[in-house]
Amino acid sequence: MLVFAISDKGGTGRSVTSSNIVYRRALQGSDVCYLDFDFGSPTAGAIFSVSSVARGTTQGGMHRYFEGRIADPHRIDIWAETDREGLRAKPPGAGQMVLFPGDEGGGEFSTVSEEMLLRCVRLFTRLEEEFDLCLVDLSAGRSFAAQMALAATARLPGVPFRWLVFHRWTRQHIIAAHGLVQGRQGLLAAGVDHGHDGETLADHIRFVRTAVLEPDAAELEGLRETQKAWLNECDRELRELARRYGVGRTSMLGKIPLDPVLQWREQLISDEDVLSSQIANAETVAAFDDLAKKIVDDSAWEAL
Amino acid sequence: MLVMGEVRTGLLQNSGEIPESLCQGVLGLLSGERVRTSRRPIVYAVSPDQLTGVDCRLASASRARVRGVGTVLSRASVTGGRVLQGSSHIQVARAESDHRLSWSHYLARPGVIEVFGKVRVPDLADGFADSGGWNDCLDLGSVGERFMDVVQASPLLDRKAPFRSARTRLRWVAVAEEPGREGPGIRFTLGRDRVRTLRLVLPDGFTPDVVDFCEDLALHDWLLTTLLVIVERARVGTATRAEVTAKLAPAVDHLLHLWMPAARLDDDFAPLWEALERRPGFTRQWQSLVARVRDQVAINTLALLREAGGW
Ligand SMILES: Nc1ncnc2c1ncn2[C@@H]1O[C@H](COP(=O)(O)OP(=O)(O)O)[C@@H](O)[C@H]1O
Ligand SMILES: [Mg+2]
Question: What is the mean pLDDT of chain A?
Answer without folding.
Answer: 95
